[in-house]
Amino acid sequence: MESTKRFDFKDYDVKAELERLRGNVKKPNILIAGATGAGKSSVVNYVFGRDLTKVAAGEPVTRGIHQYTSDDIAVTLFDSEGYEIGSARQQHYEEEVIGFVENAKRQEASKRIHLVWYTINAATKRVTPLDKALIRRLRESTAVAVLFTQIDQVDLDELTALRNELNGILPEDAIFQVSISSEILNNETLRQYVDWERLIVWSVEQLDASLQEGLLMEIHAESETMLKLKRKKANRIISGYVASAGTAAAVPLPFADAVALTPIQVTMSVHLFRYWGVKASDDLLKTLIGSTIIPQIGRTLSKTILLNVMKFFPGANAAAGVINATVASGITWAIGLAINEIAYRNAMDSSKTIEQLLNQEFGSLFEQYLKQKPKSDQPS
């Protein structure tokens, strides 16, 4: 360990840690493009559950493209002004958008455009030559999804014809049909024609693993499919802290000094709460960790690890009562999985608060996950 000083949770600054974590999140850059009236704002508002152009600070980066970013938002949005079909602006739109994306491609990875959501209003019942030209050229630089918006304004044959217009221009799995119409979204039969969930899953998979966390932190996930994806991808966060805990205990620690690992595990807890967007003040987060999570960990370790350490972690020295790298990793893995599962359950059903779920279920989940070895090959 770098220091032999015991960790005192009373001195842990949750607010400072949240600020540090925010600064460390790698933000995906998303450009939303398309003609005026194609529904760009509706897409942003639905996916993120709020209007990022009003929450984040905006500044022009070209004549017609604005960047929206904020320390409190884990994505950077680039919004193009669009164009009126047949207007003089239409002649300049292609070069403006392409020039911006190609220029970004020549810069460092964090400055590039990682995703383009290209919107086309299905109600116009046409895909313009400019749309096709732009989509082709954008695909040379980055991942592009085409979103047919306002599909409630067309019938199935018309929608199929629109999709066929893009044959040979981009893959079928990169074409999405979306609507914010409550009539469609609240109708189980009609909702099957809406691709919001598939859009999010596709978008996440197009990103480098280091950028996926940012998008998942910001999406307004409601469906079981999206929440399961978010739960699965959290394994990458947990694995990072598991590795840190293993390194911290490379030299075996007396069990009595296991508290030395607490900073790693507390920070992981804060990170997971932030990732899931748990709505709690800094003081409440500290209370949840200090009064709920840590005591339950202590109780479980006392009755389980010391009695069954050889069973759970072969090679650990139970007689000497030491915490080695294997045990430290296993403890951290179990804490991470338990918090991740509780946050997932809270997102699926908010009838119980996160505090109630932690009090009622954390201990049993932690004990359950202690029986699992950390998986370095967990899908991310």
Automatic annotation (TrEMBL):
Domain G: 30-141
Subcellular location: Membrane
Annotated Gene Ontology cellular component terms: membrane
Keywords linked to the UniProt accession: Membrane, Transmembrane, Transmembrane helix
Signal peptide (UniProt feature, chain positions): none
Primary localization: membrane
Name recorded for this polypeptide: Uncharacterized protein/domain associated with GTPase-like protein
